[in-house]
Amino acid sequence: MGNNIYKYNMLYRIFQDFKLLISLIKDYWAGEYRKIPYWSIAVILFTCLYIINPFDLIPDYILGIGQIDDVLILILCLYLIEKDLHKYQEWKMNRKINNNS
Where are the domains of the chain? Predict the structure, then answer.
């Protein structure tokens, strides 16, 4: 049973990091947050391009199976930029606190 809890924690963490990534992209696009290394920007760009490109390792037209490589690339992206995501999260929380003061 303990192993199942770990799986749910991992899925929850991936989902939370994904939501944070979407928020980071929006704030970066709006020019509100720019403290992200070029390496992380490149990883995010590559991931977005890979996911929207229908011609990848496993073609997307193979329903169910075709999206597996996209999900794996997304998880790899989240792993590679996790430290920058957490820095962004701290910035976002500090901004929220400062705006509420």
Answer: 2-100
